[in-house]
Amino acid sequence: MDLTEGTLKEKNDRAKRMMLWFGIGSLIMSFAGLTSAVLVSKKREDWMHDFTMPKAFLISCIIIVVSSITFMLAKRALKNGVRQLTTVMLLLTFLLGVAFIACQFYGFQQIVDSGYHFTGATSNVTMSFIYVIAAVHILHVVAGLISIMVVIYNHFKQKYTATELLGMELSATFWHFVDILWLFLFLFLTFSA
Predict the structure, then answer these.
(1) Neighbours of 167 (CB within 10 A)
(2) Whether the Cβ atoms of residue 68 and residue 176 lie closer than 8 Å to each other
(3) Which residues of 23-45 are buried (b: 16+ CB within 10 A; e: fewer)?
(4) How far is CA 72 from the centre of its chain?
(5) In this predicted structure, what is the pLDDT of residue 4?
(6) So what's the pLDDT on residue 119?
(7) How many angstroms separate the CA atoms of 45 and 2, rounded?
(8) What pLDDT does 184 receive?
């Protein structure tokens, strides 16, 4: 299909999808840069090769996977016309996102309790990378939570139907991307440290 074909609404919808994918591509490149920096830095003499990721980071993996499932269930419920279940699943997705962030901060506390800080005498390059990568990811989770709040608001305003749910689809795509990104980052940091 030619991108110039269709109604104005179809063109706008395609443009919004394309903008999201350009944004996701940009994020992939940003995190590729950070993970490449980790790979290069692993050759340093002061790189820690025996560090174990905090348990809270593993728990956050489970939380974020469940949040993707609840978002999928919300979308399915909306397509089936079950608005109340859609509401419950959207709110649950949001709460799981907040729980993910809380778990990440608990993971930071576990790192501090192990004696490592972001900066100062008790910091090192390994821990600094873990802090930076996790913190930058948290910022993107916050962006995802804001998009979910917009979806919840629009859902309460009944702007979505079984056939008109572009905003929810865009938010879900970004949320699933952020979820997959954390799983990749967790595995990368676990096996690169």
Answers:
(1) 17
(2) yes
(3) eeeebeeebeeebeebeeeeeee
(4) 15
(5) 62
(6) 81
(7) 55
(8) 96
Take residue 124 and report the two structure tokens written for it.
């090192």
pTM score, whole prediction? 0.90
SS (H, E, C) the chain: CCCCCCCHHHHHHHHHHHHHHHHHHHHHHHHHHHHHHHHHHCCCCCCCCCCCCCHHHHHHHHHHHHHHHHHHHHHHHHHCCCHHHHHHHHHHHHHHHHHHHHHHHHHHHHHHHCCCCCCCCCCCHHHHHHHHHHHHHHHHHHHHHHHHHHHHHHHHCCCCCCCCCHHHHHHHHHHHHHHHHHHHHHHHHHHHC
120-143: per-residue pLDDT in tens? 887 888 888 999 999 999 999 999
For residues 167-183, average pLDDT: 97
Rounded CA separation 19/21 (Å): 5
pLDDT in tens, 26-35: 999 999 999 9
Quickly count: other Cβ atoms within 10 Å of residue 47's Cβ: 16
Of 165, 181, 157, give the one whose Cα is nearest residue 71: 165
